[in-house]
Amino acid sequence: MEASSLLNERQRMYRRTIPCSKSVLSADDDFVKFYESLIPTEDEMQREGLRKSLKEVVAMLLPQAELFVYGSSATLLGFKTSDINMCVVVDDDANRIEDTLFFLETLATILKDKFDDVKVVKDEVPKLKFKDFKTGIPCDISVNNQLALENTKLVNSYREIDPRLPQLVVIVKKWAKSRGVNDAFKQTRSSYA
Fold first, then answer.
1. Which positions ≥6 away from 32 have C-beta within 8 Å?
2. From the CB of residue 9, how many other CB atoms can be counted at a distance below 10 Å?
3. Contact status, residue 91 vs residue 64, Cβ threshold 8 Å
4. Which residue segment(s) compose the domain that 158 sits in?
5. Sign of the dihedral defined by the CA atoms of residues 51, 55, 56, 61, in that order
6. Which of 22, 40, 44, 69 is the most buried (most CB within 10 A)?
């Protein structure tokens, strides 16, 4: 090993022992205030009633199904206006695209009386999209979207590692949204990215 690379290695090792500045470890007051202005209040996060009523409807169609929330509603990294993403998990027989579309279309027929703008979107991951009458909250329901559920678990693991993550993520998402670079349908990065 060359002397200069050995020196660089020693410098890197030494730097790891230097404690971080307090300003690095704690967010600036303005940063925190801005973050807090973006996140939903406790009342706004009480979307559980909506999920429970949808779970009852899903259980009428598929008693063995589970309804899980994923994305920013599950990671608490959303805005006051964030949608609620849900996934119906059923056995493998419903994995076929015909069954998934049939299930979503049947669910759409039932929900048309209870929600606004109900429609099935046949994307790479088909989903049912609608808005809650009372709150105006947009919702999506997909079927067996295991990747989305695993990504939610991953992000929640990151939240446990560093409590500053929510502040950083929400502010970067706000910046990306204000610049129009967080919409996968417009060929830009998704909010998850």
1. 167
2. 11
3. yes
4. 40-177
5. positive
6. 69
**Which pLDDT score is estimated for 105?**
94
CA dist 39 and 166 (Å) reads 10
Structure confidence at residue 178 (pLDDT)? 83
148 neighbors 85 (Cβ within 8 angstroms): yes
What's the pLDDT at 64?
A: 83
- Residue 2 domain-assigned? no
Q: Which residues make Cβ contacts (< 8 Å) with residue 171, sequence separation at least 6? A: 31, 34, 35, 38
**What DSSP character marks residue 126?**
-
Q: Nearest-CA neighbor of 84 among 124, 47, 133, 41?
A: 47
Report which residue type is found at 4. Answer: S
Stretches where the chain sits below pLDDT 50 are 94-97
Q: Which of 191, 35, 37, 69 is nearest to 139 (CA)?
A: 69
Q: Is residue 138 part of a domain?
A: yes
**pLDDT confidence of residue 94:** 47
Q: What is the CATH number of the domain that holds 116?
A: 3.30.460.10
Q: Tell me how far apart the alpha carbons of residues 112 and 109 are, in angstroms, rounded to a whole number.
A: 6
**Contact assessment for residue 54 and residue 84, using Cβ atoms and an 8 Å cutoff:** no
Domain count, the chain: 1
Q: How far is CA 12 from CA 1, 16, 22, 25, in A?
A: 16, 6, 20, 20
pLDDT of residue 176: 85
Residue 88: other Cβ atoms inside 10 A: 24
